[in-house]
Structure formats: structure tokens, C-alpha cells
């Protein structure tokens, strides 16, 4: 019930060109103070934690206004506070804000501060420019979606797992198209083979009753994102989880593809179960950059074997005393697993190096501009 109401408010605010501060901010602030219990409850609904409150510990928390970034449009963010939904025009100082971020607003609803994140997904920006692009902040759980058919690919799953580990987000493996699969256990076993303590769910993403067990991960204040390769059923799953609001999602997309509307299709949907479901195309094209820890966490057994190699810089190829090669020979380690580990390490090293290069180039360019400016000043001074 709340949901439909909420979206009608969003529609009206995003169409409005007036400044958010025009809306009686004073009465909202007063409301915030007098209804503290209700407010903190509403904030919890949006994923508020003591981790965020601690960051403003020195201030009078009752006088601060907190807002969560619920959607990113080209020129403005859509925010939700404990009491209402509002829009915030994007300015240069907001370059590092992404969906899921928590903001502190001034009394007039203008931007004051972004709070530190619990987790962050970022990627190397597409195209020739080498830059990181923020995808989503403060995600708790990620559904790593794979389909139970010939597209099922463990090495691809390991890649998504490395990304989840790097972002410090809890992975849940969601195996779709269970309705088309005769033996789901074969696949579940393979997942448990690479992540023994993993949470695995099999679903028919097309059927709302089949996705019910997934709401357990979407409880009050929990934020869930979805990633997986093309065609595995991410959109289908999201639509089934959102249920009645699905139509609205596709309307937004339609507008977007025609380039008429300003939305970038990055939205946090509120689920009836109390959680927030992130729908963002960016999660589909994530690359491994600055992901060394994530890869290491995904291949713990190889890391621990490598510690036993005779040489600290062993490449695990033909070096004597290589514990990794011994494990391969003994059948304790699968060759596919080692190859996947090395491929992901290479991918992340390559992307990280190009990012570092870009950063160095930017630094040099800034230095160069400064030296020109200094030179010009000196000339003028003469
Ligand atoms: N039978 C069956 N079909 C499914 C299931 N999940 C998805 N599909 C079908 O698989 C196709 C791809 O599903 P999508 O939801 O578009 O896949 P996606 O992961 O969003 O794909 P991209 O948008 O390319 O990233 C569609 O035709 C769905 O109807 C499932 O659990 N069972
Ligand atoms: Zn070795």
C-alpha cells in the first residue's frame, strides 16, 4: 500500500523543477525531532545502522536530517528521508555519490555531507577513458544469479564471487530455470565445491511463489543487489520479487531507452518484506579492478597452498617444491580452479594497472597546468 503511494510522490517531485527547499523544510525538521521514534523506525526501513550514526556522534543527531539515495537520474538524485521523498539536483561536489549512499542534509534540504559506506561496488568506466565509476553503496547481500542449463559456468560464478568478496557483501547463489532442470543437485554440488558454506537457492524466476524463499534475504533494512550474466533471468527475478510494481519498472526503462526521460535506471525498490532491492544495469558489467583481496578470498585454498611453496614468488608452474602443483597432481586441486584464479588475477592486475596509469597521468597533467600557471604569473610579475 505504501509503495504505490510512494511512487506517486516520486512522479510528482521528479517532474517538478522547483527547488526541494521550497517544500516546507521547517515543518519537516520539526516533525523529525518530535517523531523521533517513528523516524528512527523509518530510517531502519531504509537500512540505517549504528555505523552511520557513529559518524555524526559529535553532533546533535536530532537536529540532523538523513537521506538515502534511492535513485540516480542524470541531473538529480531521488532521496528518501524518514518522512518523505525529495529530489536533490546534482552538483560537482556530489561526484562521488551513488545509489544507496546516506547523506546528511541541511535544514533547507541542501547537501551537506556523504556518510562513509558499509560496502561499495565500483567498476572501470566503459570506453577509452580509464576511470572508476561508482555503481552502488551500502549493499548487504548480492544475489549471484546463474541459470541451471548449459550456460552454467563455475569460472564466471567465481568472478562474481570475487567482486562480492571485494565489496564485502554477502553472496547468495540464486540458480534460475529450476523448472527446466532435471537434476538441480548436480549444480548445487558444484557451487558448494567452490564455496563450501555458500547459501544456494534454486528458483523458477518466472513464478512469484517460487521466489518466496528469497525474501528471507530481503528483510527489514536489508539491501539486496542482483548480478549475473546476460540471459540468466535477473530482470525476470527482479520483476517477480517486486511483483505489482514490475510494470512501473518497465515504464521507466522504456522512457530511458527513448532518451526522453532523465532516469539512468538505477533504483532501489522497497519490497513488501521490508528490504530494498537494487536494480541497476551497472552491476551487469562489473570488472575486476583493485580486486586482489576479493580474488584471494574467493580462492582461499590456493592462497593457503601457495604459502607452502618453497619459493615465496612461486608462479606454480614448474618450480621445485611447488605445493600448488603437488595438489594438482594429487587431485586435491582442480586444474580449472587454478586456471580461473590465475585468469582473474591477471584481469584485476591489468585493470588496476591501467587505473593507476590514468591516476598518474591526471596527477602529471595537474602538475603541468600548475607549472604553466606559475610561469604565466612569473611573466606577469616581471
Ligand atoms: N523457464 C524459465 N525461464 C526463465 C527463468 N528465468 C528467466 N527465464 C527466461 O529467460 C530469458 C532471459 O531472462 P531475463 O530476465 O531477461 O535475463 P537477464 O539476466 O535479465 O538478461 P540481461 O537483461 O541480458 O542481463 C527470458 O526469456 C525469461 O523469461 C526461469 O527461472 N525459468
Ligand atoms: Zn607454487
TrEMBL record:
GO terms for biological process: ribosomal small subunit biogenesis. InterPro entries: G_CP_dom, P-loop_NTPase, Ribosome_biogen_GTPase_RsgA, RsgA_GTPase_dom. Keywords: Cytoplasm, GTP-binding, Hydrolase, Metal-binding, Nucleotide-binding, Ribosome biogenesis, RNA-binding, rRNA-binding, Zinc. The keyword Cytoplasm applies. Residues 137-284 form the EngC GTPase domain. GTP binds at residues 176-179, 228-236. Residues 1-25 are annotated as: Disordered. CDD domains: YjeQ_EngC. Residues 12-25 have a biased composition (Low complexity). GO terms for molecular function: GTP binding; GTPase activity; metal ion binding; rRNA binding. Transmembrane segments: none annotated. It is found in: Cytoplasm. Its EC number is 3.6.1.-. Zn(2+) binds at residues 309, 314, 316, 322. GO terms for cellular component: cytoplasm. Residues 128-286 form the CP-type G domain. Binds 1 zinc ion per subunit. Its cofactor is Zn(2+). Pfam families: RsgA_GTPase. One of several proteins that assist in the late maturation steps of the functional core of the 30S ribosomal subunit. Helps release RbfA from mature subunits. May play a role in the assembly of ribosomal proteins into the subunit. Circularly permuted GTPase that catalyzes slow GTP hydrolysis, GTPase activity is stimulated by the 30S ribosomal subunit. PANTHER family: SMALL RIBOSOMAL SUBUNIT BIOGENESIS GTPASE RSGA. Monomer. Associates with 30S ribosomal subunit, binds 16S rRNA. Belongs to the TRAFAC class YlqF/YawG GTPase family. RsgA subfamily. This is Small ribosomal subunit biogenesis GTPase RsgA.
Amino acid at each position: 500500500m505504501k509503495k504505490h503511494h510512494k511512487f506517486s510522490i516520486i512522479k510528482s517531485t521528479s517532474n517538478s523543477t522547483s527547488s526541494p527547499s521550497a517544500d516546507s523544510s521547517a515543518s519537516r525538521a520539526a516533525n523529525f525531532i518530535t517523531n523521533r521514534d517513528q523516524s528512527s523506525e523509518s530510517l531502519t526501513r531504509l537500512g540505517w545502522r549504528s555505523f552511520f550514526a557513529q559518524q555524526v556522534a559529535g553532533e546533535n543527531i536530532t537536529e540532523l536530517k538523513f537521506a538515502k539515495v534511492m535513485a540516480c537520474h542524470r541531473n538529480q538524485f531521488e532521496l528518501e528521508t524518514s518522512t518523505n521523498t525529495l529530489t536533490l539536483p546534482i552538483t560537482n561536489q556530489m561526484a562521488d555519490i551513488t545509489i544507496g549512499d546516506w547523506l546528511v542534509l541541511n535544514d533547507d534540504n541542501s547537501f551537506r555531507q556523504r556518510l562513509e559506506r558499509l560496502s561499495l561496488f565500483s567498476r572501470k568506466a566503459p570506453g577509452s577513458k580509464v576511470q572508476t565509476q561508482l555503481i552502488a553503496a551500502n549493499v548487504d547481500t548480492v544475489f549471484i544469479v546463474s541459470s541451471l542449463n548449459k550456460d552454467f559456468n563455475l569460472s564466471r560464478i567465481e568472478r562474481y564471487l570475487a567482486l562480492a568478496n571485494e565489496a564485502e557483501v554477502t553472496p547468495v547463489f540464486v540458480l534460475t530455470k529450476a523448472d527446466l532442470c532435471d537434476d538441480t543437485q548436480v549444480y548445487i554440488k558444484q557451487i558448494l565445491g567452490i564455496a563450501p558454506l555458500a547459501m544456494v537457492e534454486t528458483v523458477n524466476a518466472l513464478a512469484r511463489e517460487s521466489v518466496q524463499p528469497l525474501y528471507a534475504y530481503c528483510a527489514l533494512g536489508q539491501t539486496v543487489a542482483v548480478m549475473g550474466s546476460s540471459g540468466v533471468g535477473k530482470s525476470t527475478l527482479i520483476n517477480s520479487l517486486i511483483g505489482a510494481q514490475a510494470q512501473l519498472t518497465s515504464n521507466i526503462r522504456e522512457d530511458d531507452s527513448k532518451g526522453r526521460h532523465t532516469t539512468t535506471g538505477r533504483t532501489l525498490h522497497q519490497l513488501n518484506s521490508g528490504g530494498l532491492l537494487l536494480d541497476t544495469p551497472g552491476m551487469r558489467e562489473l570488472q575486476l579492478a583493485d580486486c586482489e583481496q576479493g580474488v584471494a578470498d574467493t580462492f582461499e585454498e590456493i592462497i593457503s597452498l601457495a604459502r607452502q611453496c618453497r619459493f615465496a614468488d612461486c608462479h606454480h608452474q614448474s618450480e621445485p617444491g611447488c605445493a600448488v602443483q603437488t595438489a594438482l597432481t594429487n587431485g586435491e586441486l582442480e586444474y580449472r580452479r587454478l586456471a580461473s584464479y590465475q585468469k582473474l588475477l591477471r584481469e584485476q592486475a591489468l585493470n588496476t594497472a591501467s587505473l593507476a596509469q590514468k591516476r598518474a597521468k591526471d596527477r602529471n597533467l595537474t602538475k603541468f597546468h600548475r607549472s604553466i600557471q606559475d610561469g604565466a604569473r612569473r611573466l606577469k610579475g616581471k
